[in-house]
Amino acid sequence: MLKTFPIGGVHPSENKLSREARIEYFPLPDTVVLPLSQHIGAPAVPVVAKGDKVVVGQLIAKAGGFVSSNIHSSVSGTVVSVDLAMTASGLRQPAITIRREGDEWAEGIDCSSELVRECTLEPAEIIRRIADAGIVGMGGATFPTQVKLTPPPGKKADVVIINGVECEPYLTADHRVMLERGEEVLVGTSILARALGVQQCYIGIENNKPDAIAHMKELAESFPGIEIVPLRVRYPQGGEKQLIAAITGRQVPSGALPIDVGAVVQNVGTALAVYEAVQKNKPLVERVVTVTGKPLAQPANYLVRLGTPISALIDHAGGMSDDVGKVIGGGPMMGRAMSHPEAPVLKGTSGVLLMRQKESHRKQPDTCIKCAKCVSVCPMGLEPYLLSKLSKKRMYAEAEPERIVDCIECGSCSYTCPAGLPLLDYIRLGKAETLKMIRARAAKS
Length: 445
Description:
CATH 2.40.50; Rossmann fold; 4-stranded antiparallel β-sheet
């Protein structure tokens, strides 16, 4: 029997329209916009100024703290501004804008496709290279990778889990990476294990990707300690806690982290970026992005330089039609609607989804009928109807003991609600306010 996580979950229509689309190199943009907050944690601090000349891979903003990440130029050219720029949500935040004037790479970066398999570096040097390269979680969480590889005192990992699940409908970037760059992913996985002093690694892949499972299993035969684990299709299996439970049977307690049960989870794209950083001295300046949706003529998977306008990707894949009702960054379950599609591709941009008018309109909310479907599908064992009601009434002190901060914001509750209630919207708001309350309390003590 295929493994999966123990409670909750749904199975939305997969709509993997771009699963057969090989990764294409996206044309270089004329201008890139690189926000200083492309990661969880403190914004990066600029180390360049207007008028400076830069090359691909050059450091342009340094990590602003322990939980932060370096940012590098994704093109060669001239810095035209260090100022505020519009994000996909319509907000303005500090960013560095560079006008491209060629494609010259920084000295020491190996851009060849030759596989470099053996890594004899000490763990501290591996982690330093990953930090220098600005690697973050590529599945969308964007947590700085070097922090995950530096467990707090008293905590130690004994297993590395690579997330090849890609359970979000429509998205296929990780699927294509495994098919086309699987050996590099495996080297990256072994490097992550070496950095942590771990002997056992697992790569979880849902069984709707039989080609990726077969390909990775064949490659993994020459990588001792790395096991490919086929998983039953079930959303949100890509969540860290759900994936750990599915593969190892370990349950991450409420308020705890994966490292508390000896696990470190990284995305397939992150493993590839780690390989390039450690073995090729290549910073994170590009990533694979799925551009998809039923209104598009040519759903695709592109290898895109960071900072490229998202609108350029949409145009390249067939362009906007009159039938487009919403543009989403990411997948339809956890992605966010974009109010500004001219915003740039970021380190965490896994996909761009165009939805038709009919698909994008929400059902008119009705009255809760107490069916408890939201409870049955919650993968964290929460009571979404209650958390939503408490959040709506701003009863955050009451929401905290009901474990609102454990919500992983997967959207399964809203997806399954027959009344069309915006459960996740209220829970997301309540979670944010509860976390503020908890931080304020901690600061006082």
